[in-house]
Sulfate exporter family transporter
Amino acid sequence: MSQVTQTLPEKTRFTFTEDWTVVVLGISIIALALAGLPLPVPAYSWSNGQELFSKVLTSANLLTIVIQFVLVIAVAVLGAVLLNKPLKSLLVVFPVVYGITVLALIIAGNSQVKAWNLEAVIFSLTLGLLIGNIVTLPEWFRSALGAEMFVKIGLVLLGTSVVFSDILKAGALGLVQALVVVVSVWYFAYWLCKKLKIDDEMSLMISSAVSICGVSAAIATAGAIKGDTRKLSYVISLVLVTAIPMMVGMPYLANYLGLSQEVTGAWLGGSIDTTGAVVASGTLVGETALKISTIVKFSQNVLLGIAAFAISIYWTYTQKNTEEARSEKPTLAVIWERFPKFVLGFVGASLVFSFLLSPAAVSSVKDGLKNIQTLWFVLAFTSIGLETRFSDLINASNRKPLYAFLTAQTFNIIVTLLIAYLLFR
């Protein structure tokens, strides 16, 4: 009898899944912002030592950083409660992760670093890797790192910035190019990965990163298929590293080929994988190139939600990771059970901000939500770095994904140039 009494609470206790938890957390942040709660936006931009201390390390800005910390740790604690995870280790680990993340944001805020288009995620990942491989972190510390949950919260918030009305600004030609490039490059990249016998997880991440919008697409795909964070960090590194020579070299190549600013802008926007690099590269060419490149990149970014949804359906229907999954017929109920629910939060946020809110309402919360979204992504990559060993990133098995990524990116550059020339000449 006593045994039955002890086990009864376990059976009746309700626990959220992680996907539903991040939907609740993401929507709660959005709702608070729309209700008028001012989301803190710390300043991280600086050019020299004097500006670092007069803009970033001031008492007022440090207080803003502390307020932001209180907000995000409250969200993390709520997530742990909903998931029935221990709070003690989280309350020790999260401040460490946040401190490293703030350092990465400060480094990325330097004007010269911005000119090189090095994003905060690469610094948070690098700092995390260095600390995690120099210091022997206890297992309880590593197990408390919530990289996957942080990524998914950021993805739900990302939906607020993927506004479908931006397609209207992009125009018909930008949309046509985005559709043709995304479909053709994605298919080629995936076909190439399978030819090289690269596993499905890595193949999907590489294909999405090359064809859609780089970092965000890789993160969304990894979330949709519950992918290995070590593979995700490797793909993100490839995206960020290759974006730099493309950002600098493609404008000069366009000039050498005698391309117009319209064609050049469409080429840059359709082939460079990060929005920041697209803007920087377009600026090197001229005002018209900058405008067209931004329009085309907007079009590709909007397709992220559709792609994430399609990949989620594909993965939940075809995955065969366990004996149970292999023996279980993929009915609609099974697909729903496997389907990553955070995608619904992403799409829901995008639809609300696209069609239900006034431009004034969107504008009033845009900066705060964008800032907090970026923070969750950087927190995630700090966590990924802390839990990853260098040996997992640097080994012979990573050569094939590297070859696949570079080959697919070359294909992307050529195909996008041809389509841009046909549509924008």
Residues 266 and 358 are 30 Å apart (CA to CA). Residues 1-14, 321-329 have pLDDT under 50 and may be disordered. Residues 287-318 form the longest helix (32 residues).
